């Protein structure tokens, strides 16, 4: 089915990964420390997850809470370590103190992961000008996805922006070629309007864990999303 929507699920460990895949996830975002909204996992965790599942894995490159890059050398070392473990897809995104894209940090990390596909994550929802951010990143190699809720507050607030950006993508507007991956306060009742707008990629974290972040991913919860997206 060519128009099958992508379902990406956050996984913290191999148990999460197996449950997410069995529930119908197409791809996993690998992170640790959700109290900080997701940081780079250990190489060992990546290795265990890679051995447990056979779907694509996107590894977070983020070493501290917030959207400042921090120690760029340490980010490069983290990326290099993940590449050595076999990682070939990543998630990253850094802003400067003024809410503009931190091109120095982004370009340095992207140079390290040359040849890999990557997602610019929800830092876009904190950018001072998201349209300008897209245009400034448009030529970076490997950027194929924006993870966004349309607004820092989540999908409820961001729905008009998401629909407008989906339309811009259909028109081929510069900077809007990467796939829209919607996540951040996403609920099943948002799906029909987003699918009707042509959005075909969805990201869930807490929605895959009815027991909260201290509980593992539920294959049943993931399956409910798979069913809704395939309807």
Poorly predicted sequence stretches spanning 5 or more consecutive residues? none
Going across the major beta sheet, what is the strand order?
A: 7-6-5-4-3-2-1-8
Shape: globular
pLDDT averaged residue by residue: 96
Estimated structural class: alpha/beta
| Radius of gyration from CA coordinates | 16 Å
- Beta strands, count: 8
> Strand count, sense and closure of the main sheet?
8 strands, parallel
H/E order of the elements?
A: EHEHEHEHEHEHEHEH
Short description:
The protein is of the alpha/beta class and 231 residues long. The protein is 38% helix and 16% strand. The radius of gyration is 16 Å and the shape is globular.
Spell out the key features of this protein.
single chain, 38% helix, alpha/beta, 231 residues
Give your account of this protein's structure:
Helix content is 38%, strand content 16%. Helix 1 (14-23) packs parallel to helix 2 and helix 1 (14-23) runs parallel beside helix 8. The protein is globular. With 231 residues, it is an alpha/beta fold. An eight-stranded parallel beta sheet has the order 7-6-5-4-3-2-1-8, covered by helices on one side. The termini are close together. Helix 1 (14-23) links the parallel strand 1 (6-11) and strand 2 (27-30).
């Amino acid at each position: 089915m060519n128009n099958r929507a992508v379902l990406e699920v956050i996984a913290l460990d191999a148990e999460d990964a197996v449950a997410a895949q069995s529930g119908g996830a197409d791809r996993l975002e690998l992170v640790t420390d959700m109290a900080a909204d997701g940081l780079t996992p250990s190489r060992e965790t990546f290795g265990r997850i890679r051995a447990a599942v056979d779907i694509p894995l996107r590894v977070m490159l983020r070493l501290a809470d917030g959207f400042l890059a921090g120690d760029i050398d340490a980010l490069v070392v983290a990326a290099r370590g993940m590449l050595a473990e076999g990682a070939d897809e990543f998630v990253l995104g850094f802003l400067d103190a003024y809410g503009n894209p931190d091109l120095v940090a982004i370009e340095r990390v992207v140079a390290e992961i040359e040849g890999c596909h990557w997602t610019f994550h929800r830092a876009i929802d904190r950018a001072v000008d998201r349209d300008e951010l897209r245009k400034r990143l448009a030529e970076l190699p490997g950027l194929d996805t924006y993870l966004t809720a349309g607004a820092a507050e989540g999908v409820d607030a961001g729905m008009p922006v998401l629909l407008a950006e989906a339309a811009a993508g259909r028109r081929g507007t510069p900077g809007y070629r990467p796939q829209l991956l919607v996540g951040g306060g996403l609920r099943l009742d948002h799906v029909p309007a987003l699918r009707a707008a042509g959005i075909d990629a969805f990201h869930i974290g807490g929605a895959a864990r009815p027991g909260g972040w201290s509980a593992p991913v539920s294959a049943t919860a993931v399956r409910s999303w798979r069913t809704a997206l395939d309807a």
